[in-house]
Specification:
It contains twelve helices and 14 strands. By secondary structure, the chain is an alpha/beta fold. It has a domain at 2-121 and 308-372: P-loop containing nucleotide triphosphate hydrolases (Rossmann fold). It has a six-stranded mixed beta sheet with strand order 7-11-12-3-13-14, with helices on both faces. A five-stranded antiparallel beta sheet has the order 2-1-4-5-6, covered by helices on one side. A three-stranded antiparallel beta sheet has the order 8-9-10.
Length: 372
């Protein structure tokens, strides 16, 4: 049984251009309207960082902190609605301008970063994530890794060991003056073990994503389009095959200064009517497919974690035509997630969503207030 998850109270202090935000969101759809540059995205970024300890806009935590201040303070109260009653918890993150993060679960330090980041799952869509369908494979690998963090929590250890061994092998390959065969074999054995596990786990994640992805795409995009999705592994789930290929490609990798085989080269092929989406899809189709991928991420995490992730949608309707916008909001009406949605076009959002299901907010110059 998948239990509802809601953010019932949010406090953000000195986050980006927000001096202070203190709101009680509604349990279903929260529409945050305002002109560009007023702080709409910063509110969503604050929710995401509160839930995960990370920003979706920057790899540097210190960039969350408002200029002229030293620390950003994020606090929230989450509720899981169990059949036996409501389970409430408080979460908090303090981020220094230098990037140091202090995390709190019910006023205590969490057992681990992964434990904290998976307690209150969130899924975010923002305009830059169109690179999921238009950009390099690393974006699609990141999507798979977010999913596997919930479906296979131990995957983080495989990724860390693999990344460290990959770096060490690269360093050894640059030494052209000594015989480093023994050391290379040792690191390649580590790459083979953890790389094979990563490949197997990602392949399973793709199979899990397929059904909700196809369903969401039919609902959001044109129903006549045929979507095909295929995992393209850069390595193998067989450790011996990985070990053998790494040994064979040492000279090539030395010359090219990169490891040419392994899951760090994985990709997720996306085809529309048999053609690569990067070559044939319109901007609206890219946006619809990206939304479908995020929806599939949400469904898969919900099934794995047992709670319905919170959905963050930034400027979601900016490049969808009216028909696709209507289809999107019809689809959102079927999900049980609590939703936070920003827009510069409130009249379009308000006309599409039931009044009883939404809470409306206006943000101006970093100050937010609830409206009727």
């Amino acid at each position: 049984m998948i239990k509802p998850l809601t953010l019932d109270r949010l406090t953000l202090v000195d986050v980006r251009n927000l001096e202070r935000v203190d709101i009680e969101p509604g349990p279903r759809i929260n529409v945050i309207a305002g002109n560009n540059g007023q702080g709409k995205t910063s509110v969503l970024e604050g929710i995401y960082a509160l839930a995960t300890s990370k920003s979706f806009r920057s790899a540097k935590p210190g960039e969350l902190v408002r200029h002229t201040t030293l620390t950003a303070r994020l606090r929230g109260r989450f509720t899981e609605d169990w059949p036996s009653g409501k389970l409430e918890r408080s979460q908090g993150v303090d981020v220094s301008a230098r990037g140091k993060r202090d995390l709190f679960l019910d006023a205590e330090a969490p057992a681990s970063l992964i434990h904290y980041a998976t307690r209150s799952p969130v899924v975010v869509f923002e305009p830059k994530q169109l690179s999921l369908t238009t950009g390099a494979p690393v974006e699609r690998r990141t999507l798979l890794d977010r999913v596997t963090l919930f479906t296979h929590p131990h995957v983080a250890a495989h990724r860390a060991r693999y990344a460290a061994a990959l770096k060490e092998r690269f360093v050894l390959l640059q030494d052209r003056h000594h015989d480093r065969t023994g050391e290379l074999q040792a690191y390649e054995a580590i790459l083979a073990e953890h790389g094979a596990n990563l490949t197997a786990i990602r392949a399973e994640a793709v199979r899990t994503l397929l059904v909700p992805l196809e369903e969401a795409f039919r609902r959001i995009a044109a129903p006549t389009l045929k979507l095909e999705v295929c995992y393209v592994p850069g390595g193998s789930a067989d450790p011996e095959e990985v070990r053998s290929r790494l040994a064979l490609t040492r000279r090539q990798d030395q010359q090219r200064k990169r490891t040419s085989y392994g899951p760090h080269r994985d990709d997720l092929a996306l085809l529309l009517d048999g053609h690569d989406v990067r070559l044939v899809a319109s901007q609206g189709q890219h946006r619809a497919l990206t939304l479908a991928l995020k929806s599939a991420e949400l469904t898969t995490i919900a099934q794995a974690r047992g709670v319905q992730p919170i959905l963050l949608l930034d400027d979601v309707s900016s490049e969808l035509d009216p028909q696709r916008t209507s289809a999107l909001f019809d689809y959102l009406g079927t999900t049980e997630s609590q939703i936070f949605l920003t827009t510069t076009r409130p009249e379009l959002i308000f006309a599409s969503l039931k009044t009883s299901e939404r809470a409306n907010f206006i943000i101006e110059n970093g100050s937010i207030r609830r409206t009727a």
